Amino acid sequence: MRKNMNSFQDSKNTYCENMLSAEDRIIRAKISLQKTNPFFAYLVLHLKQKENGVQSMGIDINGNLHYNKEFVDALSDDDIILCLVHEILHIFLMHLLRRGNRNKTLWNISTDLITNKIIELNFRTFDNSIIKKGGLTEENLNTNFNIEIPNLENKTAEEIYEILKDYYEKRRDFKEFVDKYSFDVHYDLDSLTEEEKRKLEQKYGKSFEEVKKEIEKEIRKELVEAYQFSKLKGIKPLGLERFFDKLLDFKLNWKDLLHKYITQEIPYDYSWKKPSKKSITTGIYLPTSIKENLNVVCVVDLSGSIAQKELNEFMSEIINIAKSFNNINITVLTHDVEVQDVIEINNGNIDRLMNIKIHGFGGTSHLWLPKYLRENFPNTKLLICFTDGYSEFPEEEELRNIKTIWVVSKNGNPEQIPFGYKIRLE
Q: Residue 94: left if φ>0, alpha if ψ -120 to 50, beta else—which one?
């Protein structure tokens, strides 16, 4: 009987699988990726599915994922995930901005080698994937053509292109392979027609080369946010270290980052009693999203190394947070080596908050935090600490059930903070 039931369940699962459209399976792959790899999940969320006549998949600079329904239908769930990562990496590694006058197919191969190497380093499913079997990897480049690219993961696409260009010009077998290569489609900006380039210039009000720089700036911002998000989750991607060394010089607005992470921590649920207004307009009945209250404690360092100007900015941002989110409860704790003030945010005491003056003047410590929160604010879910970073810190285990964000003053030292997510005040 159990065997028969298992067979029935397998048939049922296969039937349900076949009922899903290609677009549904792509959406499911995005959701699945969120559970295992926050960095790539953050990037993939930018993709917008667009079924068209491509042979397999393709990507453009606007984040449109062009796909062939039959191609997606034939893929396993794991393969769909890796294909999504492969495509999105072409955007976020700026591959669609940098081709110039280079041979398009050879450039595609050069960038595919980089993206596939990153996938290999980050996904255990790579060895049995369509990426390895149907695409181009460092291993099959060596096996099929005896071409080696030493230290490939540390090379740019331009460097790889110059190496492969030499083989392309001198070896007929490799040239024939390159000319027929078509794993996916890259809609790079340099392939646009003159009319399409003019429309882009009109949209941005800049020359084509300046448009490229503007798009690169937008991409860098999203890439840094994805990296910071993955650090917050404790899982950083492999094979991208040299990119991040350069990217981390790119400054993000610390207030935007803080608001983004608060938003991500607000719990929510769904209710079918009242349909979503947006869904009703499309003729589909979907549940309403219900956001629950979030208890936030803001801890403000009043030690002598915090200037009054920095304190005022700390307090202003706390007030902005309170005004921006109706469903969060904020309590402010000021301290040096112990708690000095306890203020619950509401309209009646905002003036009191802004009139707080530096009065610690001595050393500073955060060792008191875990016990104080357990005894006075046991339901705290998010802890935001405004500090200069020169302090004593509790063990991460002591705050294990509380998401912790450290906002560090401009001249502070975030390196001493042993855990949590760190944002530098700029």
A: left
Q: How far is it, in rounded angstroms, from Cα 27 to Cα 21?
A: 10
Superfamily of domain 292-424: von Willebrand factor, type A domain (3.40.50.410)
pLDDT tens profile 158-207: 999 999 999 999 999 999 999 999 889 999 999 999 999 999 899 888 89
Domain ranges of the chain: 12-241, 292-424
pLDDT greater than 90 at residue 119: yes
Q: How far is the C-alpha of 219 from the C-alpha of 212, rounded, in Å? A: 10
Angle (nearest 5°) at CA 148 between 110 and 119: 50
Residue in the block written with tokens 């489609």: 185
HEC sequence for 2-30:
HHHHHHHHHHHHHHHHHHCCHHHHHHHHH
Q: Cα–chain-centroid distance for residue 22?
A: 24
Give Cα 24 to chain centroid, integer Å: 22
CA distance 343 to 360: 17
* Contact predicate 294/382, CB 8 Å: yes
pLDDT of 24-59, one tens digit each?
A: 999 999 888 887 888 899 889 878 999 988 889 999
